[in-house]
Design brief:
Layout lengths: L8 H12 L3 H12 L6 H5 L5 E2 L8 E7 L2 E7 L5 H14 L4 H6 L16 H22 L1
Antiparallel strand pairs: 1-2, 2-3
Helix pairs in contact: 1-4, 2-4, 4-6
Length: 145
């Protein structure tokens, strides 16, 4: 497990929802999140150079971030053909929306293990989730610089 940290309230509620699910219900909830991933905002879609690839992830995942009124916003591009990764990206987007860069940095790197996703996903998918978390933390560091 990672060092102790704090999961922002919005993300903590999502984690709790997954904790209450059993087995296949976790996968179904993850797929529901996949459908809720917001489209890229016009400024990102018009010039995707602001997106950074998450090379450690087997699925082609790209993410951009901005600071809005002191809170982070993350924008993900994940193919529809990768619904579990899309679902996790949607969870990160929703759960960290409005979190300060410091809160993002304080997030335990393996917070998703509390969700029990390792019960329904492969180790390869779990590694991708770890890579996504590490990347959003790097983007938070960049916002502080």
């Amino acid at each position: 497990m990672s060092r102790p940290g704090k999961v922002p309230d919005r993300l903590a509620q999502i984690v709790e929802d997954f904790e209450l699910c059993e087995g296949r219900e976790k996968l179904e909830l993850l797929l529901q999140y996949a459908e809720s991933l917001p489209p890229l905002p016009a400024w990102v879609a018009a010039d995707e150079s602001s997106l950074e690839a998450v090379p450690e992830c087997m699925t082609p995942v790209a993410v951009a971030a901005e600071l809005v009124d002191g809170g982070m916003r993350f924008y993900f591009k994940v193919p529809a053909e990768s619904p579990t990764v899309r679902g996790f990206a949607a969870i990160v987007e929703e759960g960290l929306r409005g979190a300060t860069p410091e809160q993002v940095l304080d997030l335990p790197a393996d917070f998703y293990l509390q969700m029990g996703l390792q019960e329904v996903l492969t180790a390869q998918r779990m590694n991708g989730m770890s890579a996504i978390v590490a990347h959003v933390k790097r983007l938070a560091v960049a916002q502080l610089a």
